[in-house]
Please model this.
Amino acid sequence: MATLLKLLGLALGGYGVLCLLVVMVQRRLMYFPSRAPDAEALRAAKGLGLEAWRDEHGNLTGWRATKSAPGIRVLVFHGNAGSALDRDYYLDLLGRDGTDVILFEYPGYGARNGEPSQASFVDNAMLALAQLRKEAPGPVWLLGESLGGGVASQVAARRPADIAGLLLVTPFARMTDVAAWHYPYLPVRLLLRDRWDNVSALAGYPGPIGLFIAGRDEVVGAAQGRLLGRSLGARARIWEQPEAGHNTFSTRPDAHPWPEIRAFLADHPTHAKPTGP
Model:
């Protein structure tokens, strides 16, 4: 009996140490940035027809087309891995009919300085939105891909009147649920710092919302996107590519549902109203 209790104590102690390690390094387990020197990123951007988008102090905020369109603007918050320059396909998918697509870069990703966290992402996204609204008062859509959907939802919760609407690609409902799905042996709902609760963030958001779900999403799970859709009710327009995975959805401009998504953006251009910064 004493030996059994000793073994149990060792097991519990080891489990406690594991939980402590997870608390200490969880952001390294959650965020997967690709880093690049500024000169390298600028060369890559030039090859894509993009230029650096900087704040009033000259700090990198993201990337946009060298010749920006004067119509609807879409501010893109990209998915977890890589960097904003890996999402240049949104320029072809959405950058038609006078739509200006701007790729926001997260702190600690690409050539941008900083450390990844929910607070740093959302605070800087708010500044980026204010920067766009200062440039011109016209409508700004927020596109959030995967993790970026969490960023877009948080910004919408804080400044709902400043955006025209949301388009969430491969979205999730709550990051705590996603983490618990991947790590069922850990009490992640208690340990997670960056919780990214999109259901709560969008509960009071009144504007149009589009959800694009990958039917075979192996990263956040298609069920998460459907759960988010149910929480939004009639406010959400939902599309699904049944055979698509999280990172393998079609990015052909003529593939379903991209023509419908472009029409969705064009049909809701004026939700946002001019406000202060």
